[in-house]
Amino acid sequence: MPDVHLDDSTLNNLKLIMGDRLAALVDTYVADSENRLKLLEEAYTDQQLGELRRLAHSLKGSSSNMGASSLANLCHTLEQLARDAEVSDIAQIVERIQREFMVVRELLKGL
After folding, report:
1. At 106, phi and psi to the nearest 5?
2. Which CATH number is 22's domain given?
3. Superkingdom of this entry's organism (predicted)?
4. For residue range 35-78, what is the model confidence (pLDDT) as tens digits?
5. Are the C-beta atoms of 13 and 70 separated by less than 8 Å?
6. In degrees rounded to 5, what are phi and psi of residue 13?
7. Is the pTM of this model over 0.85?
C-alpha cells in the first residue's frame, strides 16, 4: 500500500473549519516546520537526543493536524529512536523526514 502524503479527510475538515484562512494556516505550518527541521538537524549533529525527541514529537503533532500522515509516522519513528538512543538509525530517518516534508510542502502549497 503506498504511503499517504496528505490525508484527504483531514484536509477536507481543515478546509471546512478554516475557510479562507487555510492559506495562512499552511504558511504558518510550513514556516514553523522548516524551522523545526533546521533545529532537528542541529540536534542530530550535536547528538542531543532529548532535544531531537522533543522536536520530532512537536513536528509529529503539527504534521498530523495538517493531514501529513507519512511525515507524522516518520516523526513518530524518530521520536522512538531518540528515546531509545538508537543513534545508528537516526540519520536515515532524519533524511526521510526532510524528503517527505519537501513533498508535503509542495502539496500543501498547491491547495
Report:
1. -65, -40
2. 1.20.120.160
3. Bacteria
4. 999 999 999 999 999 999 999 999 999 999 999 999 999 999 99
5. no
6. -65, -40
7. yes
